[in-house]
Specification:
Number of strands: 9
Strand order of the largest sheet: 5-4-3-2-1-9-8-7-6
Largest sheet: 9 strands, parallel
Distance between the termini: 30 Å
Number of helices: 13
Bound molecules: S-adenosylmethionine, 6-(5-methyl-2-OXO-imidazolidin-4-yl)-hexanoic acid, iron/sulfur cluster
Length: 333
């Protein structure tokens, strides 16, 4: 399961810390080697997010605009109608997206919402899009229903190290998250599990976070790495506004992506939230380090995103997903 290329048989925190400590160019070289062995390095998947139920969430995640504990000014809405979700998915597909991720600001879904959720999954799949949902904690029965409806991925993040977690969220435990991930896996759904960097955590927490992911019973098939998007009125957004130096260093962010790639060679590593404030060069380093999916469009769930035009320009500049580039690769040998 581990990379035969660069990773020791036993995934310990010390071994992961040693990867982080490598000279940056050496780390990137190793990550790029692992990436090329398992993925097409000239392709980056484009995904679109939609908030199907916004705001009013009972959890207290310190980064999130949608928590009732945040004073972000966000209004709580109801679950969207199935038709409206399918219209947004069709639009995303027409704009070139391959994957559609639906997020709800719930602690957990209510059973009465499950019929609509199933119809969304079936409808989005029928459009030829990969489906992902993130709805909070799940019961066994809910996970089974999502699996039976054909859901491709369920996103449920560990977010950070077990040690730092309690500084960020108090209303559900790390173990609660691990339990939901188990239910998802047992229901035959691919797991999408990652977290956020730049929440004031230490390097040791980033090591602990990636250790937790890489030692799950199976590697997640999908690993979103988010950089904190600071939202005013949230605990962490306000922290970052007061202490701008706490913002994650971009090289450290790229290191985190590279180590994730080496530890979980087959996973799709998603360069997720936070791209809007990242330079093209940093994003290019993330792709070199093994990121192979982004969220396109001008919105994530509730916050802004770079937008499809900016992404098309970035891809053209970097020669990603381009047929001409495939020819150039062949010619260059
Ligand atoms: N309510 C569901 C849950 O948390 O399980 C799903 C939605 S939640 C918005 C999905 C993930 O988005 C979170 O686990 C977190 O990692 C990420 N996220 C939320 N707000 C963020 C922010 N301001 N910056 C970066 N990532 C964020
Ligand atoms: C994930 O790890 N990142 C995406 C997705 N899973 C659902 C969400 C990012 C949300 C960023 C903040 C917002 O727009 O509200
Ligand atoms: Fe709720 Fe999810 Fe936001 Fe946490 S991250 S407050 S669970 S919507």
């Amino acid at each position: 399961m581990n990379s035969p290329l660069f990773f020791p048989a036993k995934v310990t925190r010390d071994a992961i810390a040693a990867l982080f400590d490598l000279p940056f160019t050496e780390l990137l070289f190793r990550a790029a080697e692992v990436h090329r062995a398992h993925h097409d390095p000239a392709r980056v998947q484009r995904s679109t997010l939609l908030s199907i139920k916004t705001g009013g969430c009972a959890e207290d995640c310190g980064y999130c605009s949608q928590s009732v504990a945040a004073e972000s000014g966000l209004k709580a809405g109801k679950l969207m109608e199935v038709e409206a979700v399918l219209a947004a998915a069709a639009e995303a597909k027409a704009a070139g997206s391959e994957r559609f991720c639906m997020g709800a600001a719930w602690r957990e879904p209510k059973d009465r919402d499950m019929d609509a959720i199933e119809a969304m999954i079936e409808g989005v799949r029928a459009l030829g899009l990969e489906t992902c949902m993130t709805l909070g904690m799940l019961s066994d029965d809910q996970a089974d229903r999502l699996g039976a409806a054909g859901l491709d991925y369920y996103n449920h993040n560990l977010d950070t190290s077990p040690e730092y977690y309690g500084e960020v969220i108090t209303t559900r435990t790390y173990q609660d998250r691990l339990d939901t991930l188990d239910r998802v896996r047992r229901a035959g759904i691919n797991t999408c599990c990652g977290g956020i960097v730049g929440m004031g955590e230490t390097r040791a927490d980033r090591v602990g976070f990636l250790h937790a992911l890489a030692t799950l019973p199976e590697h997640p098939e999908s690993v979103p790495i988010n950089a904190l998007v600071p939202v005013a009125g949230t605990v962490l957004g306000d922290m970052l506004a007061d202490t701008p130096l706490a913002k994650i260093d971009e090289i450290e962010f790229v290191r985190t992506v590279a180590v994730a790639r080496i530890l979980m060679p087959k996973a799709v590593v998603r360069l997720s939230a936070g791209r809007e404030s990242m330079s093209d060069s940093t994003q290019a380093l993330c792709f070199l380090a093994g990121a192979n999916s982004i969220f396109t469009g001008d919105r994530l769930l509730t916050t802004g995103n770079a937008g499809s035009d900016a992404d098309a320009a970035l891809f053209a500049r970097l020669g990603l997903n381009s047929d001409e580039m495939a020819t150039a690769l062949e010619t260059a040998g």
